[in-house]
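User: Predict the complex.
Assistant: Input components as received:
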Amino acid sequence: DGGITQSPKYLFRKEGQNVTLSCEQNLNHDAMYWYRQDPGQGLRLIYYSQIVNDFQKGDIAEGYSVSREKKESFPLTVTSAQKNPTAFYLCASSQGYAGYTFGSGTRLTVV
Amino acid sequence: DAKTTQPNSMESNEEEPVHLPCNHSTISGTDYIHWYRQLPSQGPEYVIHGLTSNVNNRMASLAIAEDRKSSTLILHRATLRDAAVYYCILMYNNNDMRFGAGTRLTVKP
């Protein structure tokens, strides 16, 4: 079955450390996205990529970085510059106007 | 700026129809109207989308006003599994979707 795989499901990070969240899709979608969700809130766009080797900042890109070296993969790095990284992170992909497919998310906690 | 306006919460009884409204008065001619729903601790799930005409699929129906400034997601018979946060979203370019706070639907048995 085609879909999006996010790993790990739960992640704990010490303050001052960088951490990378994985997102892989086998849907052959061109576009991929990263969103952040805080408790009781909607999703906020961090970064998106419409094609390989190209990506754009979303509304809350500060403290995050991404790469898009392969069509299937769009990893997100949460850097030490992100002041409040504890959140639920969602990856998605899309093709045209057909709608987005989301992964099951990674819950990041800073300890 | 919020592109869509939805009520914060709604309640429904099980097996009754539910009409979830969404206002999008600043919609442009090329904006598609998308609906997603999200269960707790899960990623959002695509429900339906449309441009001008009403749309039906196995999950729901989408009724779009003639002036396209509002739309309504219709669940024909609500079940307990339909309890979720429902998001109405305008896709205003090909690949760039912003989510608002959505409507939290509670379904009572």
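Residues 63 and 82 of chain A are 4 Å apart (CA to CA).
Let me know if you want any component modeled separately.
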